[in-house]
Amino acid sequence: xxxxxxxxxxxxxxxxxxxxxxxxxxxxxxxxxxxxxxxxxxxxxxxxxxxxxxxxxxxxxxxxxxxxxxxxxxxxxxxxxxxxxxxxxxxxxxxxxxxxxxxxxxxxxxxxxxxxxxxxxxxxxxxxxxxxxxxxxxxxxxxxxxxxxxxxxxxxxxxxxxxxxxxxxxxxxxxxxxxxxxxxxxxxxxxxxxxxxxxxxxxxxxxxxxxxxxxxxxxxxxxxxxxxxx
Length: 230
What we know:
By secondary structure, this protein is α+β, with helices and mostly antiparallel strands. It is built from four helices and nine strands.
């Protein structure tokens, strides 16, 4: 009889355990966003050489590239902040409009060299652009503003995201008539990271007097939080 009672007691305990283990929780998402002015800019500078011969075309482009690099050095831009992106040499063809079946004729060659330049002195951007054009730059493919270091801003955005999640949890618990308990888990979803600013500039408008507005860099972080309620 005692054995039967003991077995029945165990059954009651085992049945009750899942009910006791089921913890009441609330799940919320929090978003934190910060912004700052960019402190670094990248631009791609290209030079082009056109000539009847391949050698002269490449020499022309190389001389222009050397003049551009000299100007960059004069502005204090270090070698580590200059990277050659591509060097190309292609024939220039002319097609006979009266005879489309005829093979196109090579009438010259075009050489192109482009460099990716990183400028850390934002205030000198206009002057640098003007000097590059005077040195022989033929094309500016783009200007990209960004932050060199985003760690501190990411940390601030995370704090704001957690604060936002806690505020939402407090509002929901009050509306539901329950009390908040401890935080069970927090997941960093990193919603967006730095959102870069990009400006594409044509060679005709990229003068020192042209307005170049770097704007702001936005960093957004999202956290998912689970909290106990009672």
